[in-house]
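Suppose a colleague, Dr. K., hands you the sequence of a protein chain of 106 amino acids and asks what its three-dimensional shape might be. Before reaching for any lab equipment, you can write down a predicted structure in token form. Begin with the sequence itself:
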Amino acid sequence: WQGSEKDGQKKGLEKHWVMHRFEDGTFVLLFTTLEDGEIDSFSEKGKWWIENGKFHEYHNNSGLTDIYDYKLIDDNHVRFKAAAMSLDMENKDYEFIDTKIPDTNL
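The predicted structure, expressed as tokens, is then:
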């Protein structure tokens, strides 16, 4: 899955990501950010699961869990809206759309 957003979490911050969600409930998340002309890249690993109709994302690095409301738009798009975030954000209505990366091995 891939996605991007600008000014969603914080004014002046642009983020792009690729997230591999594995069937065993683990994930690898690769971020590239642009802020004040500075580009940074980093990765995160963790676990994901659905509980009480919400998407949970536990991050190994921080030991914290983000919780999202989610809606399947179609087979290739999922809208996530922050329900309980581990980080303090300027935008309490943070949301984004993940787009499925086509499998080119077919």
